[in-house]
Design goal:
Blueprint: E1 8-10, H1 15-25, E2 31-35, E3 41-46, H2 47-55, E4 75-76, H3 82-90, E5 95-99, E6 105-110, E7 121-126, E8 146-147, E9 150-151, H4 152-162, E10 167-172, H5 176-182, H6 185-188
Parallel strand pairs: 1-2, 4-5, 7-10
Antiparallel strand pairs: 2-3, 5-6, 8-9
Length: 189
């Protein structure tokens, strides 16, 4: 999930701060994950948790920890299982934190963005000269040639991301600087 850190809420936050954050992120991801100073997952909060808290006379100035769900679902980084993900989808659980061995959040998955989660690294070989496509590839590497509205390499990256591949490496050679500049991670994020 891009910008997943906006779904993190410090345990020192108030109910009002949680409401403001939920309003900010919108309906695409209607859950916040409460963490301690080390980013350890303590619980989750949805707008439903806040409404139920109000019915129990919790105020907007009260601590978010008073209404958080301490039994929230999570996925361990070394145990991403598509059967569990299917079960979450069937239960309409869309936003899932990925935690390490210490229960610290290292990522948050929006299951609407993935068809499956494949815990592998991918390598895209993008170093050829593209001689069969000359003169198109004389100044522009083949991976940057557009198909539709975006370059070939972006189609490949998008497809890998759709299947949950999160670590993508690109091998470059011919006109590699142009490809490196076009795919600068600072511009993509």
């Amino acid at each position: 999930m891009k910008n997943w850190k906006r779904n993190i809420l410090p345990h020192t936050s108030t109910v009002k701060q949680a409401l403001a954050r939920l309003n900010e992120i919108g309906v695409a991801s209607n859950v916040l994950f409460v963490t301690d100073e080390m980013q350890k997952l303590l619980g989750s909060v949805t707008d439903g948790d806040i409404r139920r808290g109000f019915l129990e006379n919790i105020g907007v100035g009260d601590a978010i920890t008073s209404i958080m769900n301490v039994d929230c679902k999570r996925i361990f980084k070394n145990n991403i299982d598509n059967n569990i993900i299917r079960q979450y989808r069937e239960r309409s659980i869309i936003t899932i934190p990925v935690v390490d061995e210490q229960q610290c959040i290292i990522d948050i998955l929006n299951l609407n963005e993935y068809r499956e989660i494949i815990p592998v690294d991918a390598v895209i070989m993008a170093g050829g000269k593209g001689e069969r496509l000359l003169p198109l590839t004389k100044e522009l590497p083949k991976p940057l040639l557009k198909v539709g509205n975006k370059p070939i390499v972006e189609h490949n990256i998008d497809r890998l991301i759709h299947f949950g591949v999160q670590h993508i490496h690109i091998s470059i050679n011919y006109l590699g600087d142009g490809l490196r500049d076009a795919l600068d991670p600072r511009k993509v994020l």
